[in-house]
Amino acid sequence: MKLKQQPNIHHIPTDKKRYLPLLLLADEQESMIDRYLERGELYAMLDEQTQEPLAVAVVTMEGEGICELKNLAVSPSYQRKGLGKQIVEYLVNRYKESCHTMFVGTGDSRQTVGFYQGCGFTYSHTIPNFFTQHYDHPIIEEGKVLRDMIYFRKELKR
């Protein structure tokens, strides 16, 4: 789908659950989203003409100059058009004044790992069996069951 004009990214301080359908694309268990949504800052990329949400992201402050990108999802009809990279770049610029490092945890899928590496993130560490211990059903990406959470980090320029 083609955008009518450049989307803008908005901070969404209230009524965050209205973006749940998009959030569930990146984290498919609502109880897990509930663990970070209210304490995190939600950003939505909206089509300025239609106000349709195109992408969402949630960032939490983890203390000592560290933030974590907990959720990043792009509407299926707008995927692979650079919107995910655009929202990551926005968040890096937004948080570089208050944080020195941004982390993101994800499953070990080639496409997702490649995306974050393409955004300048580098491997940090692995949490073994995260998905099998914290989710009530198997999480499957690229035809394989996800087990470990792979963490990446990006140094933010101050």
Main attributes of the structure:
single chain, 158 residues, two-stranded antiparallel ribbon, 5 helices, 34% strand
Verbal overview:
This protein is globular. It has a single domain (8-155), classed as Aminopeptidase, CATH 3.40.630.30. The chain contains five helices and nine strands, in the order βααβββαβαβαβββ. Strand 3 and strand 4 (66-74) form a beta hairpin. Helix content is 25%, strand content 34%. It is α+β, with helices and mostly antiparallel strands and 158 residues long. The strands form two sheets. A seven-stranded mixed sheet has the order 1-2-3-4-5-9-6, sandwiched between helices. Strands 7-8 form a two-stranded antiparallel sheet.
Outline of the structure:
This protein is of the alpha+beta class. It has helices spanning 20-26, 30-34, 83-95, 110-118, 130-134, and strands at residues 8-12, 41-46, 53-63, 66-74, 101-106, 122-127, 140-141, 144-145, 149-155. It has one domain (8-155): 3-Layer(aba) Sandwich (Aminopeptidase), CATH 3.40.630.
Name the helix and strand elements from N-terminus to C-terminus, one letter apiece.
EHHEEEHEHEHEEE
Number of individual domains: 1
Average predicted confidence as pLDDT: 91
Q: How is the CATH topology named? A: Aminopeptidase
